[in-house]
Amino acid sequence: MPQTRTAALLFANGGINMGIGLIMPITTLYIHQDLHESLVTAGAVLMCFSLAMTLGNLAAGWAFDHTQPKHVLFTGNVLTVGALLALTFWPAWPLFAGLEAAYGLGLGILNAAMNGYIAFQQRSNASIFNQGYWIASVGMGIATASSGFLFHQGIRWVFGSAAALFTVTFAVIGLTFQPIERAEPARQAGPRDPVDRRLLGSLAAIALLLVIIWIGYEQWNSNVSVLMLHHGISVEKYSLLFTVNTVEIILLQPVANRLIHPSYATDKAKVVAGGLLFGLSYLLIVDATAYWRFVLGMMVVTLGEILALTSAPSLINRYATDRDRGILQSLASLSGSLGRAIGPLAGGALITAAGYDWTFLLLFAVHVVGVAGMLLVRPIQAESHTRPTKS
User: Under DSSP, is residue 320 helix (H, G, I), strand (E, B) or coil?
Assistant: First the structure.
């Protein structure tokens, strides 16, 4: 059976992330400035969006392994485009909140199913996750830079453009994606292999670190901006941090891909090193008042992102068989969604109770704990569960 071409997978993955990048930067601004709702309400809407996305991740992971994966992608795309078209024509409160949750549900299904497709492609292309993350970062950077301009033209331009991007993605999926052929599972006689407990421990440790990373990362997307404004640093300079992030990923990730050969050992080492770098970034902005300290912190965050967030899905995929590849890949998406849901509220509560510096110190400590948990991560030795990729 023919395999989906890597170029088509990467194009669709980039289109999905461009659609996300258009919407997310202006959501809080639109709710607060145009719909005249409080920042607490805006945070609640974003939390519902992330929780709906988490539900979509779970549903897609199960459906990917039990139905035809292409149909799962279609379902997610239809929900996403439908919600965005409705937002284009009726971007009013309170309908906005419900449509934003529907958008999150569709996006969760789409993201998890796309990761499942990429996971199957890793059998023939060991670097597919790195390539996918690079393309996603480029798409996200272009879209984030465009969202402000479109927002000034009117909110309908933002939602309509995102709907158009997801429609193009839908066409690419429909015309170029091939059905997935799964290997037949080997029949097992006798008691079940005890390797499953080690599998669960390893996956739980990876997922926990990902949740911690995303809880911290959300501080850069939300509470760090308030801190910078408090110190007289402009919104434009804050926005420039994410330009630094995108440029650093575009320039350095291909170098890392060339220097580090993908394998189980290197994937695990990159996740550990990336987790430590994420933690270190918060130490760098403790008691920070000068702009260069925040730039340095973002540069270290981006190094952590290049290492950990590109390698975690690949590491998880090394524990998968063709029977559970979808549900295991949804674990990475689900961890990110949970972290994004918890991050802004948890960060705000900690900052209110203890201040920024103690919050950043606590984030560093929690990252160290998460990295220590990676000591539980062990390769699966059973030959029946080995990955088809090189290691």
Answer: coil
**DSSP string of 155-196?**
HHHHHHHHHHHHHHHHHHHHHHPPPPPPPPPPP--SSPPTHH
Span 6-176 CATH architecture: Up-down Bundle (1.20)
Residues 370, 346: Cα–Cα separation, whole Å: 17
Residues 240, 235: Cα–Cα separation, whole Å: 9
The answer to whether the 6-176 and 195-383 domains have the same CATH topology is yes
Segment 179-203, tens digit of pLDDT? 776 655 544 444 444 445 667 788 8
Tokens 């994966």 correspond to: 69
CA 36 to chain centre: 29
Q: How far apart are CA 164 and CA 85, in angstroms?
A: 9
In the structure encoding, which two tokens stand for residue 270, read together?
Answer: 């990159």
Q: What are phi and psi for residue 217, nearest 5 degrees? A: -60, -35
Measured distance CA(4)–CA(387) in Å, rounded: 19
Cα(232)–Cα(220) distance, rounded to whole angstroms? 17
Superfamily of domain covering 195-383 = MFS general substrate transporter like domains (1.20.1250.20)
Locate all alpha helices (DSSP H) within the chain, ordered by sequence: 6-29, 39-66, 69-89, 95-121, 128-153, 155-176, 195-221, 223-230, 235-259, 264-284, 291-304, 310-317, 325-354, 356-373
Give domain limits for the chain. 6-176, 195-383
The pLDDT of residue 378: 82
Tokens linked to 352: 């209110």
Spans of the chain below 70 pLDDT: 1-4, 25, 39, 122-126, 181-198, 235, 322, 325, 380-391
Q: For the packed helices 356-373 and 325-354, what is the interaxial angle rounded to 10 degrees?
A: 150
pLDDT digits (tens, 9 = 90+) for 275-307: 999 999 999 999 999 999 999 999 999 999 999
